[in-house]
Each structure stands twice: as C-alpha cells, then as structure tokens.
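> Could you send the F-box protein prediction when you get a chance?

Sure thing. Input:
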Amino acid sequence: MNNLQVSEDHVAQIFDLPNDLIINILSRLPAKSIAKCRCVSKLWSSIFRRPRFNEFFPIKSSASPRFMFTFVVEDKILFFLSPQPQDPNENSSSVASYLVGSDHHTEFTGNQELCLPINGFVCRQYQVIKYRKVVAICNPITGESLTLPKMGAQFIDARSYFGFDPINKQFKVLCLTWHNMGIHVKSEKYQVMTLGVGKVLWRTIKCRKPHYPLHDGICINGVLYYRAHDVEKGSGISIIVCFDVRSEEFKFINLDKDMLVGSSWVLINYKGKLGAVDINVNRFMLVVLEDARNHKWSKHIIYKVPDSWRELRITTPLQFVGATSTGEIVLSPAYLTDPFYVYYYNLERNTLIRVRVQGLEAFPNHRVHTFLDYVEDFNLM
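Output:
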C-alpha cells in the first residue's frame, strides 16, 4: 500500500507538462470540455489561470466568430451559440447549441440590460428590488459569474457600461448613477471598477459635463462610446460620450444633425469606426464618425429599402445587432419566433438576406438579445 502513495510534489512533477504538450491535449477538446477541465484538480485549474493563457492556446473560434443568443427563462439566463455565416445566401442556415444557464439573483425582477460581449465576457445589469441594481460579469464558456460590489452611494437609477483597455489588457466597468428620474438630474456620480487586479472596488472619477446616459454603449479600440443628453443644455440636446478606458477621461462629440431627431439610432462598430444606424419604412441611414476631434461624420442614405424587405413579410419588430467585418448590417427579431431568422442587409447592393437559426424553437416569445462575432475565452475570473 505504501508503494502506491505518491507525494503531492511528485504528482506536480508528473503533470508539469511542457506547454506544447498541454496545447496539443487541450486543442483536441471541445469548448465545454475545456471549461470542465478546470474542475479536475487544483493543478489543472492553475493551468487555466496562467497569464495570457489564450495567447498560447490556439482558440479556433477566433477565426470563426459566432452568434450569441441570450434570454431569461424563469430564474436562469440562458446562452446559446451558433455559427455566423460570413457570406450568406437564401439557403443559409445555422444551428444554435445550448452553452450554459446562469442563476439570477433570488430577487431578480426581470428587468435586464446587457452590454456587448468583449473578448468572451458579458456584463449584465439587472434590477433586484426597487432602487437596487446589480452588475455581474460572466464568462459563458467557463460558466463563471462575478457579482460586483454595491455602488457606494444611494441612487434612484444607474446604467453600467463595459470596456476593455487593449494596451494594459484590462477590463473595466463604468457606472453612472443619479438621484432622480428623467433628464433633470440633481446629482450624478461616475464610478469605475477595474477587474482582475485583486480586490475589486468602485472608484469615483470626475466628469466636467453632466449628462444623462441613453441606450447601450459600444467599446471600439479602447474607447467606450454611448449616447447621452447634455444636462446643462436641456433635454433636446444629445451628444456622444467618449470614455477612454485606459486614461479614464471623458470627451464629447456633437451628433450629426440628422441624428438629433428621434431616439432610434443605434451605435455599431462599422469597419473599426463608430457608426450609427437608423431605419424606417421609407429610408435607411448610416452615419460613420470619420474625425472625432473635428466632429466630422460621413453619411450613407438609402431612400428606398429593398423590395425583399416587404416580400419577406417580416411581422415581428427587428433590432439592430451590428455590422459584419465586410460592412453588412445585421438585424434580428426582439423576440424568439418559430422559425427564427437573422437578417443581413447589404448597403452596396441594397439587398436583404435572411439566415434561419434552428435550436431555439422551445422558447417562443422570450425577449432575446443577439450578439455578433462572439469569440470564446477560456480564461477564468
């Protein structure tokens, strides 16, 4: 029996495998199996916690971005992934596979906001009780979820944004809180939290221009953009807020004059630049920020939407998802339907192509969030 006893040091030596061999083993496993491997032992868990793990592990999904679909069913938020066609046609289809289900806070009320995923991580904010919102970061691949500490001040409402500093490789959450509803803000507070640097704490930062945040934000090349009302100039004045994730400084851009009308504009990443899209039955419009310093926008207007828009008989409300690397605008229904389609709109050809996504039929009428270009990340929090 004594001959079978092996010291922990001996075990560590046995499993202290070269990186090349570790990569060879792990590269043969599917994503779900890789995520489960961290539970095998402390040694395996430490392998996944090595700095820059993703840089020496050949993640195949980076070359094959995917759609992510997420929605709430009872007390769980579900995540599904499906292949994202790069050159779709009328015969294109995709199959969504279940990834993970994450439990909500026990007092979850159903009011949920999600930020665009960044490097595999998802930031979500949800209401638990009146005047109480919770911010959580999750990795759908590993199944981990981190609930952030409470904000340090009492507030009426809050909105959180998720950003990434590509220089220092740091994730940050920007949270804006205010003390009364609407645009007549008596007092607001700006707080930032840096993730992955030991104890996570909210830090208060300064902003020279009081503003009331609107809609979702988007992070492009280390800059977090979101629309806001200029509180000092009144409710009719909207601006683009630019938050440098690395320096934690705010700048502001005036909107194109056509963007001042209505609130249906959605910010997107258009070929690496900030873009904004809007559509109605008569025309489609895309504006792209060409020069942030001088507030210069380029404009693309299509005064007649394609006939296929009517021929497809789209009866459910569509929402903008984003733009592909080639500049096609992607839209999807706001609620799950059967059948469920994602739509590609090509501006140059003025054509609309739909791609059927299978595997979501069991959840009709659920509010769904669709994301483009999701790339798996196996790092642990």
